[in-house]
User: Fold this.
Amino acid sequence: MAMIFSDKIMTPRLRMRRLVEQDLPLLVDWSNSEIAHGEYLTPDRIDGRDGRDNIVNGAYWHKQNRLFLIELKNDQPIGTLHYWFRPERRNCAVMAVKIADPQQRNKGYGTEAQKNLIIQLFQRLRVESVEMYTDINNRPQQRCLIKLGFELVETLSYDDHQVKRVGHLFRIDAFTFANNPVYR
Ligand SMILES: CC(C)(COP(=O)(O)OP(=O)(O)OC[C@H]1O[C@@H](n2cnc3c(N)ncnc32)[C@H](O)[C@@H]1OP(=O)(O)O)[C@@H](O)C(=O)NCCC(=O)NCCS
Assistant:
């Protein structure tokens, strides 16, 4: 039987945890910031009221949909990591990551965060696959995905908060996960 998540995931350099109400100002700041999203993601622009409701009523934290705050071990928040299941494919998780503080990019944190959530998704939730969409020009994210054993599935147009993008869909399945030394 699949086990549930604890409220946080610890990695060698990071803590990834459930959001609490005190995190709301930061979440709203990032959500409305082009800098926090970088060139290849569109700000999702949540407002304070929706954000608070989502935190308080658990919409960001249930089995089908979890939003983690990524922090350094000195408590500095650096970004978010999100997974969800599409209603029509319950055994395939979709992930999205954002290292919102540009100074913290290119230090391996994005790879470390994604790797550890992927381990939880396969080992605890027993998913069959994990998928990620990336803008076709998002070389840093594609580099992370290759390092983590993802394979290119298709190139497609997708809608990113009302912005049409051309991107790649990447996937890793349970067999590849089990056989990739990066996860040992
Ligand atoms: C994409 C993102 C999550 C990557 O996180 P990160 O912590 O910077 O990633 P890492 O440091 O673990 O790895 C980045 C890799 O990309 C490489 N890279 C960086 N810029 C690059 C470029 N312009 N071209 C090619 N490779 C590049 C780095 O060298 C590194 O690879 P390496 O370990 O082989 O040297 C982060 O840049 C980010 O949050 N960007 C804004 C939001 C975003 O685009 N999210 C992804 C949505 S799908």
Observations:
- The longest helix spans residues 109-123.
- The helical segments are 24-31, 34-37, 48-56, 109-123, 139-147, 174-179.
- The chain has a mean pLDDT of 95.
